């Protein structure tokens, strides 16, 4: 077992914060873990920083997430990660001390969901969003959030134009200096039967950028992405609109467990490492977040930030693109409107990615159980097949997802 598992997540939070009186065994564990963190940080070194749009803020080229293991967060802080996605998830006393102590050196983001439903059926509600942010501030003790993010974004351009409730909530909180910058994460809603008139993420993002109120956006982006997404990234760079890539590891967990595939992987690099180099030096993104599960993966991945692509990394990205195109849904939604059974193909295959690529099986199964229609409703009629730009065997994948998640 890896060294980072010497003591558990909760034990580490409590002992490192000095919140409990721990015995000698725990103290030894903390000391060993601190050493592991130091070693990890020194292997990664200082992360480069990029300007986030035209905001004037410099953020680490790879940002961090509150969903990481605490020891990876600690190592990230030492390496200069200064932007934290989903910081509102640090509730109930587990906000890292290193960030609380040096609060103004970090940009902490609060992710705000729609209310009275999920991201498809829920509503934007000014008052509820204001109260959510105030409550998250109390729970995290962060005093203010730097970035207030509309989680999942708008359903279509018309909603952006006609429903300014989220923007008003931001302005109220900003007046009280509880939030400073407005941003959104944008998913695709084209072809989604629960969202009348839904549009794709690149379409909505282009309108958000023109609207001029939001400062930056987080969206799905990775190797082999569509011309529409690549076009948006180029245009955002020209116009000074900030960009942060998320869901950057399509198929990556599967590659690592596919021993036959890994035998032909270029030597001298790894999938995570090549990805980090590529995202931070060969794309026009301002920053990206990469899902990692432990300290070893932090070192492997984040040590690539800002370093130039070598021949092995170039070849790796090429091979990873081919693998992902065959295995992992890019969540473009193009197939959805062609399914007479109303199956939420992209949602199901997104949860498959959580289970197979992030190893978050419990979360994937929990989300899957909430869907109204499951993959076993697929009649294998084949009507969707011609509309998948990747040529995925959708009925076959759905049947496998039912076994995995059902
Ligand atoms: S094959 Fe399955 S998912 Fe595709 S259109 Fe037919 S029922 Fe829907
Ligand atoms: S199955 Fe294909 S068309 Fe459907 S969302 Fe995934 S990549 Fe897009």
Q: What does this molecule look like?
A:
With 406 residues, the protein is α/β, with parallel strands linked by helices. It folds into 2 domains: 46-324, Alpha-Beta Barrel (TIM Barrel); 336-405, no CATH class. The protein has 17 helices and 10 strands. It has helices at 9-16, 24-44, 70-78, 97-101, 126-140, 157-162, 165-175, 201-211, 227-239, 252-257, 259-263, 271-281, 295-302, 311-327, 345-357, 361-369, 394-405, and strands at 49-51, 58-60, 62-65, 83-85, 107-112, 145-150, 179-186, 216-220, 242-246, 287-289. The strands form 2 sheets. An 8-stranded parallel beta barrel has the order 3-4-5-6-7-8-9-10, surrounded by 5 helices. Helix 2 (24-44) crosses helix 3 and helix 12 crosses helix 14 (311-327). It is globular, with a radius of gyration of 21 Å. The two termini are 30 Å apart. Residues 329-335, 345-346, 349, 387-388, 390, 392, 394 line the site of one iron/sulfur cluster.
Topology:
Blueprint: H1 9-16, H2 24-44, E1 49-51, E2 58-60, E3 62-65, H3 70-78, E4 83-85, H4 97-101, E5 107-112, H5 126-140, E6 145-150, H6 157-162, H7 165-175, E7 179-186, H8 201-211, E8 216-220, H9 227-239, E9 242-246, H10 252-257, H11 259-263, H12 271-281, E10 287-289, H13 295-302, H14 311-327, H15 345-357, H16 361-369, H17 394-405
Parallel strand pairs: 3-4, 3-10, 4-5, 5-6, 6-7, 7-8, 8-9, 9-10
Antiparallel strand pairs: 1-2
The structure holds iron/sulfur cluster (SF4) (2 copies).
CATH topology of the largest domain: TIM Barrel
Overall SS class: alpha/beta
- Overall 3D form: globular
% residues in beta strands: 5-15%
Small molecules (ligands, ions, cofactors) in the structure: iron/sulfur cluster
Strand order of the largest sheet: 3-4-5-6-7-8-9-10
**For the record, what is the CATH homologous superfamily label of the largest domain?**
NADP-dependent oxidoreductase domain
Q: Give the number of helices.
A: 17
The biggest beta sheet reads: 8 strands, parallel, barrel
Report the CATH C-level class of the largest domain: Alpha Beta
Spans with pLDDT under 50 lasting ≥5 residues?
A: 1-24
- What is the distance, rounded to the nearest whole angstrom, between the alpha carbons of the first and last residues? 30 Å
Radius of gyration, whole Å:
21 Å
Q: What is the H/E order? A: HHEEEHEHEHEHHEHEHEHHHEHHHHH
Could you estimate the helical fraction of the residues in percent? Answer: 40-55%
Kindly give the count of domains: 2
Averaging pLDDT over every residue, what do you get?
A: 92
Count of extended strands = 10
CATH architecture of the largest domain: Alpha-Beta Barrel
């Amino acid at each position: 077992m890896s060294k980072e598992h010497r003591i558990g997540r909760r034990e580490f939070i409590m002992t490192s914060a000095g919140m409990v009186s721990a015995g000698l065994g725990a103290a030894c564990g903390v000391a060993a873990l601190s050493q592991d963190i130091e070693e990890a940080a020194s292997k990664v070194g200082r992360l480069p920083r990029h300007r986030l749009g035209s905001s004037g803020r410099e953020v680490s080229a790879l940002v961090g997430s509150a969903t990481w293991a605490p020891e990876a967060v600690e190592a990230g802080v030492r390496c200069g990660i200064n932007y934290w996605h989903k910081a509102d998830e640090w509730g109930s006393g587990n906000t890292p001390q290193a960030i609380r102590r040096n609060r103004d050196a970090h940009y902490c983001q609060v992710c705000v969901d729609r209310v009275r439903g999920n991201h498809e059926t829920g509503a934007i509600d000014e008052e509820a969003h204001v109260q959510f942010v105030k409550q998250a501030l109390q729970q995290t003790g962060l005093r203010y959030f730097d970035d207030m993010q509309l989680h999942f974004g708008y359903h279509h351009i018309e909603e952006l134009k006609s429903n300014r409730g989220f923007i008003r909530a931001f302005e109220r909180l900003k007046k009280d200096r509880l939030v400073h910058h407005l941003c959104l994460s944008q998913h695709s809603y084209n072809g989604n039967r629960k969202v009348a008139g839904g549009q794709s993420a690149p379409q909505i993002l282009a309108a958000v950028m023109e609207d001029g109120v939001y400062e930056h956006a987080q969206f799905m982006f990775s190797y082999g992405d569509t011309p529409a997404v690549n076009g948006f990234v180029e245009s955002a760079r020209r116009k000074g609109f900030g960009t942060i890539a998320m869901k950057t590891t399509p198929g990556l967990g599967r590659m690592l467990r596919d021993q036959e595939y890994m035998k032909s992987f270029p030597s001298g690099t790894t999938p995570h490492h090549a990805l980090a180099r590529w995202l931070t030096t060969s794309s026009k993104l301002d920053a990206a977040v990469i899902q990692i599960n432990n300290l070893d993966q932090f070192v492997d991945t984040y040590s690539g930030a800002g370093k130039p692509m070598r021949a092995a990394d170039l070849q790796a990205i090429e091979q990873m693109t081919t693998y992902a195109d065959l295995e992992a849904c890019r969540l473009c939604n193009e197939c959805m409107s062609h399914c007479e059974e109303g199956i939420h193909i992209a949602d199901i295959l997104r949860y498959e990615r959580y289970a197979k690529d992030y190893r978050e099986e419990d979360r994937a199964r929990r989300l899957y159980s909430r869907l109204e229609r499951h993959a076993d409703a697929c009649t294998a009629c084949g009507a969707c097949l011609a509309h998948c730009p990747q040529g995925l065997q959708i009925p076959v994948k759905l049947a496998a997802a039912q076994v995995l998640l059902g």
